[in-house]
Design a protein that fits this description.
This protein is α+β, with helices and mostly antiparallel strands. Helices cover 36% and strands 28% of the residues. α10 links the parallel β12 and β13.
C-alpha cells in the first residue's frame, strides 16, 4: 500500500473520492469531496484561524484504498491532528475506506505519519506525542475499535468519549404509523398544529426548493430567518455565511439539497435545510419568522418534513447533533458521535 501526502484536494480525483465514500465505512454528505474541499477553503467558516492540511491517500496497484482527510492545528493547548471538517459544522466525520481495508489502512497511515525516530511527512516537526484528536465519529463506526486495537498493538494511549447525541427517527413509510409511535400528547399537538395551519384563513403553503434560478434568493431568505434567532445570528458571520452558501449550492448541484419553506400569504414563516442523501433526511439547519409564532411554524414545517420523508420512502430522519427538547418530543432516539484521542 503506497501512501501519499497531498497539499490540495485537487490532487485526488473527486469522482474516485466520492465513490470510496459511498463504498466506505461511513457514507455521509460531510465526507464527500465537494463538502470537505469547501470546508477547507474557509477553515470551517472561520472556526479555525490557522491550520495545515494533512491530506493522505493510500493506493494499491493503482486502486484508491483509503483517504485520511486531516489537518494539523493548535487545539486544546497543544498541536494535534484532526479531521478536516472538525468540529462544529460537520456532524459526521471518519476515515474514508472500505471496512475490509480499514485495519491495514489505519496501521499504515499511523506508520506513515509517525515514523519511528524520524520527521513526519510535513518535514517540519517530529511527530513525537502529536495526538490524533478525532471528533464526530459515529458511534457505529468500526474506526473506533480499529483505533483501540492499533493503540494496544503499539502500546499507545487511547481515549474515547461521547461527544454529542444525534437523535434519529426510524420511518416505515407511513406518516400515521409514525404518529402512532410517539407519545400521545405530542401526537395530538403535531396533528392539531398542522391542521390549524392548513385551515388558517390565510394561504399557508409548504414547498420544496427545486428551481435552480431561484436558489440564490431562497438561500438569502433562509439566512434572514436563521438570524432571527440571536444565537444563530452570532454564529452566521460573513465567513460562515460564505461557507454555508457554498455548501448548499454544491449540495443542490449534486442532487442532495432538500430546502423547504412554510409561507403565509407569500411571506416565509419557516425554513428547513436538510440533506436528502442515501434514502434519509439529514436535518442540517432551520429558521423561523417570529412574526408568525401563533402558527407554530417551525413545528408545522417539521411535521411536513417527516410526512414528506414517509411518503417518499425515506427510512430515517436524522436530527444530527444536539439534544434540543423538540427532537425527543418528535420521537428522536439517541445515537451518538464520539471523540477519540490516540497518542504515543
Amino acid at each position: 500500500m503506497e501512501f501519499t501526502l497531498h497539499k490540495d484536494f485537487s490532487a485526488i480525483n473527486a469522482h474516485e473520492w466520492n465513490a470510496l465514500v459511498e463504498a466506505g465505512i461511513t457514507d455521509a454528505p460531510f465526507l464527500r469531496h465537494e463538502y470537505l474541499n469547501q470546508w477547507w477553503q474557509t477553515l470551517g467558516g472561520g472556526e479555525w484561524k490557522q491550520a495545515e492540511l494533512v491530506l493522505v491517500s493510500a493506493s494499491e496497484n493503482g486502486r484508491l484504498i483509503g483517504i485520511a482527510p486531516l489537518f494539523k492545528a493548535d487545539y486544546d493547548g497543544r498541536a494535534a491532528l484532526l479531521f478536516v471538517g472538525s468540529i462544529e459544522i460537520s456532524d459526521y466525520l471518519d476515515l474514508i475506506v472500505r471496512a475490509e481495508d480499514l485495519p491495514r489502512f489505519l496501521s499504515g497511515l499511523i506508520g506513515f505519519l509517525a515514523p519511528s525516530g524520524s520527521l513526519d511527512p510535513l518535514g517540519m516537526t517530529p511527530f513525537g506525542g502529536l495526538p490524533f484528536d478525532l471528533y464526530n465519529l459515529p458511534d457505529s463506526s468500526p474506526t473506533l475499535a480499529a483505533l483501540k486495537a492499533e493503540s494496544d498493538r503499539r502500546g499507545w494511549n487511547y481515549h474515547e468519549e461521547i461527544y454529542r447525541p444525534t437523535p434519529r427517527i426510524a420511518l416505515t413509510g407511513d406518516f400515521e404509523a409514525y404518529l402512532a409511535g410517539i407519545e400521545k400528547k405530542q401526537r395530538h399537538e403535531i396533528k392539531r398544529k398542522m391542521r390549524r395551519a392548513a385551515e388558517d384563513e390565510r394561504n399557508v403553503r409548504f414547498y420544496i426548493v427545486e428551481d435552480a434560478s431561484t436558489l440564490d434568493a431562497e438561500i438569502d431568505d433562509f439566512f434572514k430567518l436563521m438570524i432571527q434567532d440571536p444565537n444563530k445570528a452570532g454564529f452566521l458571520t460573513d465567513a460562515m455565511r460564505a461557507q454555508m452558501t457554498a455548501t448548499l449550492k454544491s449540495a443542490f448541484a449534486n442532487g442532495y439539497l432538500w430546502m423547504a419553506f412554510l409561507e403565509v400569504d407569500g411571506v416565509k414563516a419557516a425554513a428547513a435545510v436538510n440533506f436528502d442523501y442515501k434514502n434519509k433526511l439529514w436535518g442540517y439547519n432551520s429558521g423561523v419568522n417570529r412574526d408568525f409564532m401563533e402558527l407554530s411554524p417551525g413545528w408545522v414545517l417539521l411535521g411536513h418534513q417527516i410526512q414528506w420523508a414517509c411518503e417518499h420512502g425515506r427510512y430515517e430522519f436524522d436530527f444530527m447533533r444536539g439534544d434540543e427538547e423538540y427532537k425527543y418530543r418528535f420521537g428522536g432516539v439517541n445515537k451518538f458521535v464520539m471523540r477519540a484521542i490516540l497518542k504515543q
